[in-house]
Amino acid sequence: MRERTSMILVADDDEMVRSTVSKILEMFGHQVVTAEDGKEVIELVDDSFDVVILDINMPDMGGFETISALNKLGFDIPVLFLTGAGSMDYAVEAINLGAYDFLTKPIEDLDIFNVKIRRAIEKRMYVLQERKYKEALEDDIREKAEQLEEQNRLLVSYSNSLENATVQLMSSLQNAMEEKDYYTAGHTMRVTEYAVMLGIAMGLESQELVVLRRAAQFHDIGKLVIDLSCIQKPGKLNEEEWALIKKHPAVGANIIKPLGFMEKEQFIIRHHHERVDGKGYPAGLKGNQLDDLTKILIVVDSYDAMTSQRNYRRNMVMGEAISELYRCSGSQFDPDIVDIFAQSIVAFTPTESVFSEEHLEQMYLKDS
Fold first, then answer.
1. Cα–Cα distance for residue pair 19/51, rounded to 1 Å
2. Ranges of each domain in the chain
């Protein structure tokens, strides 16, 4: 492969000097472009040049001003000063401005002249190779980042699919549980709709709505291990049976504990039978120990229990149930949440698209 011809830009206000230097450079196999002063250098220079040779004393824009302007352009082209003045002050200033070397005029030793030009060209080649390496490295990093981003996207997609499959499986278990008891049929669906309705009315963020919906959907999954005869028993439960029923929140939380993506739901499920006065179960939490999502589920679960048919009592109508919520407001229920629920339930009409897992997941992904 033939080596590329080096491009050299020569600037001197003396036409004879420009002509002489050009002929010498061309004799050594270089391609030369000339300029009469620094301003013309700035107009002509681009990344194709390998070396710039500047006279120090030129009208309008001298060599030092020109190298300063070249530094700002950022081409990183080695600059050699061509001068007949060998002042130490000149040398110091030139070095401070980043000059690569000096050439004296008239040029008497062509071998030394050629060596200095060759070294400057080698420096330029090194700069270009380093730049090319950095660009290749940046491209490689960019490509690796894009690959990693795609892998992360696939992992997130897989994770979401796995979560959805898990939720669907648990929903099937939940439905199987409800089929065990005629009187609780549809309870989970209604509680879930009430919870999401109340969450929206309270202005919860979409991420919180996803958590609330799942917690409501599986809040009674612990009853899967409760004996059928206990659930379906007509009349009130005895002390032993009641103690067994009271275990279902903790049992439900333990069922979903292995699912790392439902950590917040686990807390809500475990404590959905607590009271704000601390007299609930299983832990006797109260007040600020209960978050808003748990307080929401406490209210809507109790409301549906009051308005649903039971084999041991008459179900309440809406007005009666709301009055009961207010009566127990401040002791069993959070007063603010009761107020918002009472205002919202009157005009509530379930809309499947609004309360679906898919809709809330889309809201979550949009906001995250």
1. 17
2. 7-135, 179-367
Name residue, tokens 């439960």.
237
Cα–Cα distance for residue pair 213/362, rounded to 1 Å: 14
Please tell us whether the domain made up of 179-367 is placed in CATH 3.40.50.300.
no
The pLDDT tens digits of the residues spanning 75-119 come to 999 999 987 755 667 777 888 888 898 888 888 889 999 999 999
> In this structure, what are the phi and psi dihedrals at residue 44, rounded to the nearest 5 degrees?
-90, -30
Q: What is the rounded distance in angstroms from the CA atom of residue 308 to the CA atom of residue 310?
A: 6
Which fold would CATH assign to domain 7-135? Answer: Rossmann fold (3.40.50)
Asked if residues 28 and 117 have their Cβ atoms less than 8 Å apart, the reply is yes
Confidence of residue 331 (pLDDT cuts 50, 70, 90): very high
Do 364 and 207 meet the contact criterion of CB atoms below 8 Å apart? yes
* Structure confidence by residue, pLDDT tens digits, 143-177: 888 888 877 776 666 566 666 666 666 666 666 66
Tell me if 276 sits within 8 A of 333, measured CB to CB.
yes
192, HSE (Cβ side, Cα atoms, 13 Å): 24
Dihedrals phi, psi of 49, to nearest 5 degrees: -80, 145
Edge-to-edge strand ranges of the sheet holding 31-35: 31-35, 7-11, 51-55, 79-83, 101-104
Q: What percent of the chain has pLDDT over 70?
A: 80
